[in-house]
Amino acid sequence: MPRRDGEYMGVDSDSDISVGGERKGKGKDKTDKRKKDKAKTKATEAESDHLQAAYTWEASYTRSWDTVREDEAGSLQGAVEDWMARGRRRRLLAPAAPVRRTIIRHLVLLLDLSTSMLDRDMRPTRFDLTLQYAREFIVEWFDQNPLGQIGIVGMRAGIGERVGEMSGNPQDVLKAIADRHKLEPTGEPSLQNSIELAKSSMSHLPTHSSREILIIFGSLTTCDPHNIHETLDACVATKIRVSVVALAAEMKICRELCDKTGGQFGVAMNEGHFKDLLFELIPPPAQRALSRAAGAGATNPAADLMMMGFPTRLPDASPPSLCVCHSQLRSDGFLCPRCLAKVCDVPTDCNICDLMIVSSPHLARSYHHLFPVKPYSAVLSMADASTSSGCHGCARVFPLVALAAVSEGMSAVGRYRCPDCRGEFCSDCDVFVHDVVHCCPGCGQ
Amino acid sequence: MDDDSKGSHLSVVLDLSPTHWELSSRDAPENTYPLTLATFLSQLLAFLNSHIACRHENTLAVFGAFPGKSIMLYSSSNAVLDSLSTDVNANSYPPFNIVDSTVVQRIMTELDSLEEHQEEAPTALVGALVKALCYVNRITLPTSSNSKTQSNGFHPGVLPDPRILILSVSPDLSTSYIPIMNAIFSAQKLKATIDVCQIYGPNTVFLQQAAHLTGGSYIFLERRDALLQYLIMSFLPPPSIRKTLSVPTQEQVDFRAACFCHKKIIDIGFVCSVCLSIFCQPLPVCTTCRTKFPMKTLQRLNAARPLLATGNSTRPSQSRMSTAGGPVTNNGVGGAPAAPHGGGQIANGNTNGARCVFHLG
Amino acid sequence: MPSISLTAPTVLSSSPHSLLPFLQSQSQTTLTRLYQRPSACLSIFRLLAPLQQQIVMNLLWLESAIASSTMAAWVVREGKKHYDTALSTLFRLHILSTSPIKLALNPTFKTSFRQALTGGGTTGSFGAPAPNDDKHPPMGIDGLDGYALERWETILHYMVSSGTGQNSMRPSKDVLYLLQRSGLMASPHGSLQITSAGFQFLLHSPHAQLWDLLLQYLRMAEERGMDLVEVLSFLFMLSTMELGREYSTEGMNGTQAAALTQKAMLNDLRDYGLLWQRKPSSRRFYPTRLATTLTSSSPPLPTSTGPSSGPKEGFIVLETNYRVYAYTDNPLQTAVLNLFVALKYRFPNLVVGSITRDSVKKALSNGISAEQIISYLMAHAHPQMRKNNPLLPVTVQDQIRLWELEKNRLKSQEGYLYTAFTSPADYELVLNYAKQLDVVLWENAAKRCFFGSLDGHANIKGFIERRTGGNA
Questions:
Q1: Is B28 helix (H, G, I), strand (E, B) or coil?
Q2: Are C75 and B244 an interchain contact pair (Cβ–Cβ within 8 Å)?
Q3: Signal peptide position in this chain (chain B) (predicted)?
Q4: pTM
Q5: In terms of residue numbers, what domain contains A330?
Q6: What are C412-452's pLDDT values in tens digits?
Q7: Chain B contacts of C2, Cβ < 8 Å?
Q8: Can you give the residue range of the structural domain that contains B280?
Q9: Which residues, at least 6 apart from B224, have a Cβ–Cβ distance to it below 8 Å?
Q10: Mind listing the domains of chain C with CATH numbers?
Q11: How many distinct structural domains can be found in chain A?
């Protein structure tokens, strides 16, 4: 049980009364013991709770005072700014050149639906939490990967079960896991069966799209008909990237699946960490470094040029006509720019001329990855600042006196300057421009 | 629901391209309904005042897009600071006075300072739009630095239902495709509505998409003499009551994009599968991410190109405004002499600019 | 709408401003006279609901009337009912001139409101700013806030403490008279005591309280021989004034009667804290925040005089264990809390107490309802509390409601107790008869007695008499 992992426990149960070191040892003992007699968890837990006062919910409150520190004046301003400074530095470190990312993604979400998911170590149960996070994950994933598709496979009772077909419509995918009663966990999971199923549903995909499997795995066993290593080799051969988020503990086969296929492996320590692990997999993965290492000129076999059409949307009030995809009479729809056939929804392939029809906003969602705004530099002193009295973006008035002490990367006068247009911005706008808008108000691009 | 009791925020982005306003003010036969910048401003001010009149809490910000640069002309949170220094008289409501004089004064200063060769430059509409977004972000995010404005009756904790209204006279600027798209997505994230009124010139594809994607209205102004009535009927209602009204919606939305290579607006394009850059013709190497494309794809696509010849021609302008309750706008607007008290001259060098407009009439 | 910002949010949107019913009850001539002032038009317009405002705006710049059917087509079908009520309100306010087929604004209203929006005219209805005064330094906004707060809290504090017997500063005689007339306080035993309506009043938002009192003031105005139109337009003028600017009384126009009314109002409103004058005879005055936010829903006063600057949104933290932490050092807020919270400790900026059965019962017996307590707690919840959903712990809310129900546990009914039956048979006989009449409220066979309701008594009495008479 990783949540009760010795070190983690030791640090977090560190109350203000006891000394860290000693307590740490105790925590470890406890954990080890608990691992041995899992049957008596309840009694042991009650006892250990009594000793260590380590309910899960307490974890988020423990030593929270260590994270923030007041300055001499008793203000928390400094601590907050520190957080922001950390964010700024991270941005400065990020490469300015456009990063190549796979944007047309195909993902199969493998949900463990075995009895181990009914464990209550995560609130309310692993199963409910998984469903909840899976929904959030899907929404966010489609937001960032608008051209991607997700399929869902459940593993229970020793077989893989197709829960949702590959679809590019978030609503379809969400609907597939909307009803928890249809997904009630039973039996043992089978990694092999379900990976084979997921693999087969992606076999038809073109070479330029990425194929990924994300496994949320709560069990510590897998019940497979054949040698799972053969399946693993097949995944490597078909360039399927397998990532695993384990809820219980690390299993060798899971780790190997991820390592060999280039995926990520993580064991969730608690609810928050679970979510973090899951959401780390949302941003489009950068293209494998090997082509870059071989020189920019090297041909990437996965890359391709695709012809796409941008349709016109018909209003709800237009005269109804038959659509080419379902042959239904409806008034709204999109017109293929090449053959002017009417289709119901985008993105899709035109049924008549086979042109890929996408709505350009879908494509545009990912452009900020391509043209990031240059990081602003902090204006260090009043003497360096320009004459403008307010932020170039939101017109907030700049402070007139410089702060005495600031951490590295922060501006004492609260001004951040764009290297191109020389406009000066407040820290809020700095964050907003780089994280949300991806467009400098001064330069206009 | 609290929408009724709380005010709403309106950011107005003005396209102030001298060239296009000059074109717009020419008399018939070039324009059926000529509209000068002065008349436009007097009608706009009446609209801005109407917005402030609706609720004490309503906030307003005005941004101007000038050739090559954009500035904030007015914002209610900054105005409080210098309000007491301005003149008031017993015959007008002080906040109206401040808005009118500040906006007109700043526009005149900026336009006067423009040099001849700058006037031709395209307006920085994107810059103004992004500034409007920054401002919306600022007022929706209660931060420590806002606490000072709190005592002036401005409550940062209250989300004032943000809207952005773009009054545009320029045609699409295809270089601004990506920034506009980025701005649209951030508006979606801020839950801000973008309304667009195209006062002069052809329909703009990008602004149409902006209105469509954020749930706002796009209006192509046909009767430009009735500007004020259009503004009031379509853009004054806050989002909370828009669902009970038939506000104009778009008939057709053009989802075309601009290509990265020639900044042409295209129907059918070629897209790099790695970075999704759009090109108007097949290229051997992606200019954005430098991916090389396979030779056989290029040959295949080049072979398919002749088919596109028709597709690349400009699409006829298909969008126009419609109201579900059609007769209202048509009758109402048609019969209305919309200019409040007639529009006088604006540039008479008087510091009390806006007020003069109305008095002269 | 401003006045009801305290009540549950669901009720909020539908109920109109409390002034509107009062205006609707006025005659057309009064209203038309009122509409001659641009400032009054602007203020009344602000009090309208958004849809009503939109209708007015649509019609404002039209020169000719528009057919009602045309206008109605602009509303979607689901909004029809909403639209019709909006129209009827506007008709009753005489903002729309009455004509069934054509819609048009009242011409007076239209002219004045256009003038308000565009400026111009010579009505001077927005108040004449006083020329710069060299002798005295201008009054700062903080000073004005402090003054308004002090005046207003004096009134409220007086009301709170009247029940407890503590002495606090007495507001002026006129204010006391107003409180008495409005039924918020009464003097049954010679000294003024707060009434149950008064307790309820205390839990309202300052904005609602202000309008409550002003409405009462308006009702009294005519008795005092003041011109209602003058009173109203003076109030509306105040509401459009700018905080922190000095205005002069000179510019106020009108007849001698109007001037007298204004003079009287200056005095009264100074007592309520709506405006500030250097000395009573001064010819210039400053409106305070209470006045300038009359037509808004923003909290008119900074609620705390503590060291923290700016108005605080809320200060109360309520825990599931019924404990209340109130971050305030304001005696008035403490006193109001004391109405329904058992206070335990007081610190310089913190008051701690708990909601107990007794404390709530005390409040209930004062005529405060459970809903009012809950809505008060909600309205003043600390920003930290606002992160919770639901805002207040459900257990506490329910318990407060249960305590209210407890009060209604006993039901009294008048009746007669019948005892001393000589034999079980007699008892059975009478009881059965009473049961047939369905008047038995309680019975006890062991003690041979039962209780019958009042209206059955005559019959039972007659029956017994007949029985005993028959036996004898």
A1: coil
A2: yes
A3: none
A4: 0.72
A5: 308-364
A6: 888 888 888 888 888 888 888 888 888 888 888 888 888 88
A7: 5
A8: 257-309
A9: B24, B31, B33, B34, B35, B199, B200
A10: 2-118 (no CATH), 141-292 (no CATH), 316-407 (no CATH), 415-471 (3.30.70.2610)
A11: 4
